[in-house]
Write a structure and sequence with these properties.
The protein has 67 residues and is α+β, with helices and mostly antiparallel strands. It has 3 helices and 3 strands, in the order βααββα. Strands 1-2-3 form a 3-stranded mixed beta sheet. Strand 2 and strand 3 form a beta hairpin. The N and C termini lie far apart (38 Å).
Length: 67
């Protein structure tokens, strides 16, 4: 893989775990195919207000609210 987050399809298929981990840690990964490209992104799960307020104590900076 290059530093630009581009993967050739064959390499990405062989190293899918690394592609997914990179998308989670560093953002969108591009998988280059002969006919175009795939964009691999990670979207964290958001908690509802009910889930957040069910926990004791203050909200942390990591808590993401789905309004």
């Amino acid at each position: 893989m290059t530093q630009s987050s581009d993967w050739q399809r064959q390499e990405a298929e062989a190293r899918i775990r690394e592609v997914l981990d990179a998308a989670k840690a560093r953002g969108t990964q591009r998988v280059i195919d002969a006919d175009g490209r795939f964009l691999v992104t990670f979207e964290p799960v958001k908690k509802t207000l009910e889930e957040l307020f069910a926990q004791p104590g203050p909200l942390s900076d990591d808590d993401d609210v789905n309004l």
